[in-house]
Amino acid sequence: ARQNHEHSLSSMSRMMTYPGMTAIKPDHLIKMCARASNLGLPEGNYCLGHAHQYGSEVEKSLDKALFFYRKAAQKGHLEAQIALALLLYEQKEHEGSLVEAYAWALMVQNNIDSEDKDELRNRVENLLGLLRTEMGDDELQAAKEKAAQLKEARQ
Predict the structure, then answer these.
(1) Which of 1, 2, 150 is nearest to 76 (CA)?
(2) Quick one: DSSP state of residue 116?
(3) Do the beta carbons of residue 117 and residue 76 sit within 8 Å?
(4) By the 8 A CB rule, do 135 and 127 touch?
(5) Which of 39, 72, 112, 124 would be 46's cystine partner, CB 3.0–4.6 Å?
């Protein structure tokens, strides 16, 4: 990982989201996440989003968490997409948050491709159901259009 080997950086940044699962010092993991992020690796961005959401070795900042989760989500990182959708839902008092949350949740639902992701599938279906109860028809339509734009941007 010291030489920016992409696979090593991704593996190390993934460790940050599982505290206590490694003997590597958390501040060192944050540095590896930042290096992976600087290389454009979605795992590094997801790791930094997680760190900022919970204040793990960095300042707690939901704005920074949203920023890094979006960067990872835009590259197709499923866990970042659901984390982003959940965090946006929690920020529902901000205009447009529910629409964006629903759009990212739809992206996750559409990108789950195997049966070994049942837990993720259940999480996203629960979130979509919850969002539907809080959104009007216009917002749901806007969210579907936003999801189509996100999908098009990924291709």
Answers:
(1) 150
(2) G
(3) no
(4) no
(5) 72
Residue range 21-35: mean pLDDT, rounded: 76
User: What's the pLDDT tens digit per position in 36-76?
Assistant: 999 999 999 999 999 999 998 899 999 999 999 999 999 99
Distances (CA, A) of 139 to 82, 92, 114, 124, 153: 19, 13, 30, 18, 21
Q: Are 36 and 47 in contact (CB under 8 A)?
A: yes
CA distance 25 to 69: 23
Burial of 72 (0-12, 13-18, 19+ CB in 10 A): buried
**What is the rounded CA–CA span in Å between residue 127 and residue 105?**
7
- Is residue 45 a contact partner of residue 72, using CB atoms and an 8 Å limit? yes
Task: Name the one residue in this structure whose structure tokens are 């920020």.
Answer: 91
Q: Which of 136, 70, 137, 134 is nearest to 107 (CA)?
A: 70
